[in-house]
Specification:
This protein has about 450 residues and is of the alpha/beta class. Helix content is about 40%, strand content about 10%. The strands form 3 sheets. A 6-stranded parallel beta sheet has the order 3-4-5-6-7-8. It has a 3-stranded mixed beta sheet with strand order 9-10-11, with no helix packed on it. α2 (about 85-95) links the parallel β3 and β4 (about 105).
């Protein structure tokens, strides 16, 4: 098998690994080759609008494990290939020189053993970093079960590391990935978290100390392959952020690839809207100071398909509103639908000079179409003349109805979204959704 055939096969096998994220690290090129910028990696967009990409590929799709949900499991009859460390380094350099990429996202199946796989990954990165002085961004996925010494070596070569938690519960992990254990996943995650803290202390004493995972660590879990509720998943994500100082928890909607009694049927559609709602809730926890228990609970363990999590919280806590935008602190402003972290900080800065008006809020970036129902401006509010039904109607997400409550794939062509006309089935579905939501509040 030639190099191009390997690349085609192993790049396609890597598509199930989520890597769209900001890099979070600056590495100047200097005398070496390439550089890394904090703006982002892999189909991400910089503040100036640039799309920053990386080569996302597996070292090998050969695997000794038999995870039921994985297309590369040992029992699946698929074409297999593996790069040598030298081949992988050469491809990365060739892509970089052609200005195709700014970095590398490297993962792998378990080739022989976790330690052997990690040794091959480390060798590839050593060739890039030491032989070719490659300073581009590198995100590497550590192999659960590898020795702590190899995890440390990989962390000194990569900018970001991730160890996939795979599934939302230990029970599901035992049923669907019998070769993996919770301990084998969480131990290296804990090692990386502690290593980053120790590295920061070392850098305060000696600024030329080698940097260990400078862009932090992340993880990924599969959604929809096992029966956990959204509440369980969100609580797990919150716990991972708190215990291991993760930069991101990625959620991957399960795409049926195997016929198995323990998995959804092959004709089951990926839960893309559910994945989207989880990302929205995750953003509320990371940027809006929400707790997982505020977004969902044991009594309401799953997301509302018609309202995003922030709007759903707002319509269920109407006693919290209206909020006076000229007096409310930052943490209160962040609870208002239509006000994000940037616009909330702009409000606090601007109101020091003068009292804000609706027009002024609009210029600051506030989405008044949503916010007007939850705020007061100079004593006036959008809430008083209207009931809860009108508020819900303004907040409901028509896309959830128009596309069968399914979030479009990132890689699907985006069709135009026509307006919902009166008397059509879509309009009737919208009315039914609004009626149902209001009756349940």
């Amino acid at each position: 098998m030639d190099l191009m055939e390997k690349l085609t096969l192993l790049a396609d096998s890597a598509k199930y690994d989520v890597a769209c994220t900001s890099s979070g690290v600056d590495r100047p090129g200097g005398k070496g080759l390439g550089n890394a910028v904090a703006a982002g990696i892999c189909h991400s967009f910089a503040a100036d609008g640039r799309c920053i990409s990386l080569l996302k590929v597996l070292l090998s799709n050969q695997c000794i494990y038999n995870c039921r949900y994985c297309v590369n499991r040992v029992s699946n009859d698929v074409p297999r290939a593996a790069f040598t460390p030298q081949e992988l380094a050469e491809i990365t350099l060739q892509f970089y020189r052609r200005n195709y990429i700014e970095g590398l996202f490297l993962s792998s199946g378990v080739l022989g053993s976790p330690d052997h796989t990690m040794e091959l990954m480390i060798r590839a990165l050593e060739i890039l970093r030491h032989q070719h002085q490659f300073n581009g961004y590198i995100h590497a996925k550590a192999i659960p079960g590898a020795s702590p010494a190899l995890v440390e070596k990989l962390g000194l070569l990569a900018d970001r590391m991730s160890i996939n938690i795979e599934l939302p519960s230990e029970d599901s992990l035992m049923r669907l990935a019998p070769n993996k254990t919770k301990e084998a996943i969480l131990s290296p995650m804990d090692q990386v978290a502690k290593g980053m803290v120790e590295n920061q202390r070392a850098l305060t004493l000696y600024r030329h100390a080698p940097r260990f995972v400078p862009a932090g660590q992340s993880t990924q879990m599969i959604i929809g392959a096992s029966p956990e509720t959204d509440y369980q998943i969100l609580r797990l994500a919150s716990s991972l952020y708190r215990k291991y100082s993760l930069k991101r928890v990625f959620f991957s909607a399960y795409i049926p690839t195997a016929s198995d009694t323990l998995l959804p049927a092959l004709d089951t559609k990926p839960p893309l809207l559910r994945e989207h709602r989880l990302y929205q809730a995750d953003f509320l926890m990371r940027q809006y100071q929400f707790q997982a228990e505020e977004i969902l609970s044991k009594d309401t363990p799953n997301f509302n398909p018609f309202l995003d999590p922030k709007c759903n919280w707002a319509v269920n806590h109407m006693d919290f509103f209206p909020v006076d935008v000229n007096k409310a602190p930052l943490e209160v402003l962040l609870r208002v639908p239509g006000i994000g972290p940037i616009s909330a900080r702009r409000i606090i800065t601007a109101r020091r000079s003068c009292a804000l008006t609706l027009e002024g809020l609009k210029r600051l970036g506030v989405v008044l179409k949503r916010a007007q129902y939850f705020i007061t401006v100079r004593g006036s509010t959008g809430l008083s003349p209207m009931g809860r039904e009108r508020v819900v109607r303004a907040l409901v997400d028509p896309k959830a109805i128009q596309f069968g409550m399914e979030q479009l794939s990132l890689f699907s062509p985006a069709p135009s979204i026509p307006a919902i006309e009166a008397g059509t089935p879509l309009e009737q579905a919208l009315e039914e959704a609004v009626s149902c939501l209001v009756s349940n509040l």
